[in-house]
Amino acid sequence: MSVDSASPAEVTGPAGVSGGMHYDFEDAQSGDLGALAAIADAMKSDSLADRLESLKRLSVLALAMGEERTRDELIPFLDESIDDEDELLLSLAEVLGDFVQYVGGPKYAFVLLRPLENLAAAEETVVREKAVESINKLVDCMDQPQVEEYLIPCIARLSSGEWFTSRSSAAGLYAAAYGKVTDAIQSKLRAGYEALCKDDTPMIRRAAASNLEGVVDKIAQEHVLAFAIPNFRRLAEDDQDSVRLLTVEPLVAITKRLTTEECKQHLGESVQRLCSDKSWRVRYMVADHFVAIAKNIKDQDLQEELVSVAIALMHDNEAEVRAAICTQLDGLADLAAPEAVVARFCGPLQELVDDPSQHVRSTLAKHIGSLCRVFGKDGTIEHLLPLLLRLLKDSFPEVRLNIISKLDVVDSVVGIDSLSQSLLPAIVELAEDKQWRVRLAIIEYVPLIASQLGVQFFDEQLSNLCMSWLGDPVYSIREAATINLKKLTDVFGVDWARSTIIPKILAMANHPNYLYRMTTIFAITTIAPSVTPEIVRDQILPALECLVNDPIPNIRFNVAKSLEPLAAALRRSSDTAALETSVIRPTLARLEEDPDPDVRFYAHRSLENIKAGEDLGAAAPKLSAAA
User: Fold this and answer.
1) With helix as H, strand as E and coil as C, how does 283-345 read?
2) Residue 412 and residue 373: Cα distance in Å, rounded?
3) I want to staple 70 with a disulfide (CB 3.0 to 4.6 A). Which of 74, 221, 235, 253 is the partner?
4) How far apart, in Å, are the Cα atoms of 81 and each of 163, 269, 315?
C-alpha cells in the first residue's frame, strides 16, 4: 500500500501482524515507498527496537507525506498512539522538538504542542524534562499571537493538572513564555508561578525553585522586589532541604538585579540563614556559589561578614562543605580587607592542610596557589610556602599531584629562586614517587624549572634525574622523559645537548636490557628535529646503525621507523643530504630482507615515505617556478 494513499494508521496494520516481521529501513532515505510503509508499519510493531527505529526515521515519513498531511494525520496519530515504554517516549519527545520544519515551519509550530504536552505529564522524569526542553525550543520560533493562543493555555492546563507530574513540568515553561506575551498575561504567569511555589507537594516546589532563576532573568526590575524575593524567601525557608538547596542559584540571579542597599535590606538575613542551614547539602550549595553571591551583594560590610561565614564553613562538620569552600579561595581573599587577609586565612588554611579527608586536602592543593597573588611575595614565602611543602609531602598522591600542577602560579609570585630553595628538595624527592602520575607531573614541570634556574643549576641538580626517567618501568614516564629532553634542548640549545644529553642517551644503546635500547631509539628520534643535521650525522646515525643488527625484532623495526625522521633531518643541510642515499636507504633495504615480518613491513613503509618525501621536495621548486 502506498504511503501517499493511506494514513499512518492505515498502513501500519494490526500489531499482531507486524510483530514478528523484520523491517529494512535502508531504502527510506531515497524515498522508496515500500521502506516508507515499513516505517509506518514498524510504529505499531511489538518490537521496541523496531518502534525506536521508526521514530528515528520519522522525518523521512513526514517528508514523504508532505507538510499538510503531517500536520493533519501524522501528528494526531503520534498523539493518540503514545506508547507506555519510557525509552520510546523519550525518543519521541526529542524528535518532536526538531520537527518544526516538517509541519510547515514556525507558522505551524503550535501543532506539536499537544503531543509534547501529553509527554510533559509522563511519569518518567527524563521524559518530562525532554518534553519541556522541546516545548521551549518551539517557543523560540513562535510569535506572540501563537504563544498567547496556544502555549499559555498549555501552561495553564499543566499548572492545574491533578498529578504532580504535569505541574512540575509547567514550572519549566514559564520563563520561555514570559518574554513573548503582554503585560496582562505576564501578571497571570507570575500568579501561576507563585501558586507553584506554594504548592503542597514538595516535588512541585522543587521544580519551582529549580526554574526560578530563569524567571528572575526575564521579569522587569519592579517585579524582582515584589515577586522574586518573596517567592525566593518562601522557598529558602521550606521545610524540605531538597527545596532549599535549589534556591542558591536563584539567589545569585536575584543579587545581580538589585542595588547594594536592596541586597542588604532584603537578602542579608536569608543569605546568613542559608549559610548556617542545618542541612549540609544546603551549606554545600552555598559554599559552591559563595563568591558569586558575595560579589553580587556589593555591600562591603556585609561582604566582610560573609568572609567570616566562609571561614566558619572551612570548619564545617561535613568534608564536602569544606572542600566546596576551598574552591572559592581566590575570590574569598578578594572580599576580605587586604591588610587582614593573612591574619584571617592562615589559621583555617593550616587546619585544612591537616584535614582528615583526603578529598578536602586534594581540593585545597588545587586552589591554594591562587592565594599567592593576594598574599604577595613576602606573605607567600612566610605563610604559604610552608603549607605547600606539607601538601607536597602528603600521603595521598592526588594532593601531591595538584600542588605540582599549580607550581607555575606560585613561581609567578615568589620567583624561581625562592621556590627552588624551599620546594626543590621535595620536588626532587617526588621525582621518585611510587605513583607514576606524580612522577609524570614532575617531568612536565622540569622544563619550566630549568628555564628559570639556568643550565649550570640544572646540570648539577636535575640532569641525572632526567636521565633516570628514561629507564622508568612505566612506558608513559619513558615517553614523557624523551619529550622532556627535547624541550630541554630547545631551552638550553644544541651545543648543550651535544655535550651533555646526547652522549648519555647513546650510552644506553649498549645496555643489556632491551627496554633501555628501545628508549634510546625513541629519545634520539624525538630530539633529532631540534638538533643540527651535523649532530645527526656524527652522533645519532652511527648509534642507530649499531642497533640494526640487534637480536630483538622490536628494536630493529623501531630502528626502521626512526630512520624516516632522521632522513628528513639530514635533508636540511646540503652537507648531510647525501647520507640519505648512501646510508639510510641501503640500511632500510637490508631491513626489508629481515626474517621478522614486522621489521620488513616498517622498513618498507619508511623507505616508501622517504621516496615520497624526496619526490615532493623535488617537485616544489618546479611548482614555484611555474607559479
Assistant:
1) HHHHHHCHHHHHHHHCCHHHHHHHHHHHHHHCCCCCHHHHHHHHCCHHHHHHHCCHHHHHHHH
2) 9
3) 74
4) 21, 52, 57
Q: What is the Cα–Cα distance from 482 to 521, expressed in whole angstroms?
A: 10
| Residue pLDDT, tens place only, 436-483 | 888 887 787 788 777 766 787 777 777 888 888 888 888 888 888 889
Q: Which H helix or E strand runs over 361?
A: helix 358-367
Grid cell listed for 406: 599549580
Cα–chain center distance at 221: 35
Q: Which residue has the higher pLDDT, 274 or 60?
A: 274
The three-state DSSP-derived secondary structure of 453-508 is HCHHHHHHHCHHHHHHHHHCCCHHHHHHHHHHHHHHHHHHCHHHHHHHHHHHHHHH
With 0-12 / 13-18 / 19 or more C-beta atoms within 10 angstroms meaning exposed / middle / buried, residue 139 is buried
**Cell numbers of 110, please?**
503550535
- Per-residue pLDDT of 85-105, as tens digits, reads 788 888 888 888 888 888 888
Would you give the DSSP letter of residue 180? T
Cα 251 to chain center, whole Å?
Answer: 26
pLDDT digits (tens, 9 = 90+) for 550-608: 899 999 989 999 988 888 888 888 888 888 888 889 999 999 999 999 999 999 999 89
Distance CA 354, CA 350 (A): 7
The C-alpha atoms of residue 130 and residue 124 are separated, in whole angstroms, by: 10
Task: Please give the pLDDT value at position 445.
Answer: 74
Vertex 553, ends 552 and 557: CA angle to 5°?
130
Q: How many CB atoms lie within 10 A of CB 611?
A: 11
Contact call for residues 287 and 324 (beta carbons, < 8 A): yes
Sign of the dihedral through C-alpha 567, 572, 574, 575 = negative
Structure-block grid coordinates of residue 307: 568572609
Query: What is the rounded CA–CA span in Å between residue 118 and residue 105?
Result: 22
Secondary structure, 3-state, 110-140? HHHHHHHHHHHCCCCHHHHHHHHHHHHHHHH
The predicted-structure confidence for 65-84, as pLDDT tens digits, reads as follows 788 888 888 888 877 766 66
583, 541 in Cβ contact below 8 A?
Answer: yes
Residue 406's nearest CA partner among 447, 452, 357, 370 is: 370
pLDDT band at residue 530 using 50, 70 and 90 as cut-offs: confident
Which residues 6+ apart lie within 8 Å of 2 measured at CB? 33, 37
Residue 435 half-sphere exposure toward CB, CA atoms < 13 A:
14
- Give the count of beta carbons closer than 10 Å to the beta carbon of residue 347: 12
293: nearest Cα among 321, 240, 335, 244: 335
User: Comparing C-alpha atoms, which of 508, 134, 18 is closest to residue 37?
Assistant: 18
Cα–Cα distance, 527 to 540 (Å, whole number): 10
Q: Select from 14, 81, 13, 95 the least CA-distant residue to 53.
A: 95
pTM: 0.69
Inter-helix orientation angle 202-218/248-257, to 10°: 20
Quote the mean pLDDT of the chain.
82
